[in-house]
Amino acid sequence: MTRPSRVAIILAALCASTSGQAIAQDASPNRSEIEALKAELARLSARIQQLETNFAENAEAAQTAQNTAMAEQSVAQTAASSTQEAALAAESVPQVTLKASPEVKDSRGFTFKPRGRINIDAGYISAPGSTGADSGFDAEARRIRLGASGKIPGGFGYKIEADFAENQTILTDAIVSYTDGELTLQAGQFNPFWGLEEISSSLHTSFLERSAWTDVLPFERRVGVAAIYKTDEFMIQGGVFSDNSEDLPNDNTSFDSRIVYAPKSGSTQLHFGGSVHYNKLGEGSEIRYRQRPLVHWTDNRFINTDRFSATSELGLGIEAAAIAGPFHVSVEGFRQSVNRPGALASPSFFGGSIEAGYFLTEGDSRGYKVGEFDRVKPNKPVGEGGTGAVQVNLRYDHLDMNSEGIIGGTQESLQASLIWTFTDYTRILFNYGLLSYDNAAFPTASGDTSYNVHVFGARAQVDF
Length: 464
Known about the structure:
The protein starts with a helix and ends with a strand. The chain is elongated. It has two domains: 3-90; 117-142 and 192-215 and 231-463, Porin, CATH 2.40.160.10. It has helices at residues 3-27, 31-92, 196-199, 212-216, and strands at 95-99, 101-105, 111-126, 136-152, 156-163, 170-180, 183-190, 222-230, 234-241, 253-261, 264-265, 268-280, 286-287, 290-291, 303-304, 308-309, 312-324, 327-339, 348-359, 367-369, 372-374, 389-403, 406-423, 426-438, 451-463. It has four helices and 25 strands. By secondary structure, it is an alpha+beta fold. The relative contact order is 0.11. Helix 1 (3-27) runs antiparallel to helix 2 (31-92). Helices cover 21% and strands 48% of the residues. The strands form four sheets. Strands 3-4-5-6-7-8-9-10-12-17-18-19-22-23-24-25 form a 16-stranded antiparallel beta barrel. Strands 13-16 form a two-stranded antiparallel ribbon.
């Protein structure tokens, strides 16, 4: 209550008192009534004082509450600003995830991942001594590869990798790609499209080396451009290539395509495919098809056509596979026809293989993604309370390089392998092969070119 209000009330009370006195003079009131009026006036004055005090206290409390609310709002704004700044700072710091090797990714979508593999091979070859072919124990660093891969915003990607084995540096992959949904375009040096086993990584094969027909033919990475259309069950690949970067420049041009249908029947993964390869050779070209006895460390080729003139190659391949739990089977065949200049007869060579495998450890299965075999991931890896995945495999391999006067020899091979995959990225492999030759490139002392060669091999492997 303001001071003027208080004064007005007191004056009104005094007037009332004065009027009362006048009336009393007229009416001659008694003294007790006058005293009662004075007491009432004192009570009113005290009440006014109390109201003023309460008003002041309420005003002070309201101001305090307002100040507190403003302070809390300021703190909240500061906290929100700090949170936003922290979020922006977190987005600007690259995130690193670890899966065999670290992968770095920033907020814009750039990624970088180092990659590599090491294959150390050793073993023994037993061939008839009088052939002059090297026999006995040997070992090599089969592959020592280092590289990197990643993504660039906008759907782009890259991969580059080189091999440092055998005391030399060889470029393997150098790829720039663009992906939009189910379509991928890529350019650089990479594997053309020559069948299931050939296109699958050497990290995931069931034996030390791929089937003989994939090695005897000049299947190697080439510089070119390609398009790949892939869905969950279907894939078509096609490209135009020159030659391996080490052999350029030359006039060779190849056209390669492959189609794959990979449906599922219940829990069984099926795979069906076919491929076409046409290679136009430069004028005056010569080619040679030759093959080692299973392992890579020997330079002896018991299959060898020697060099002969050619103008082009045409290859047709078929492939099929199935993976059902711990069991898998795959079969492939490839026929390569060679056109020769002038009136020379055109030879046609054939190779094929069939393999089957089974995991002895519960819950393990061969890996697969559309168009190729993939990594085996043990259900109970070593280091996590398990023993890893143990797999046994058998393969029959046929190769016939005799045709139209070209005598390169034939090879029949029976092979067995045992693979122990400790973790997703480590394994050892043991391989035995019995190779039977006719028209072998190394005759015995008596001139015999039909004999057997025994091969034992082992590999220690790690990749990231």
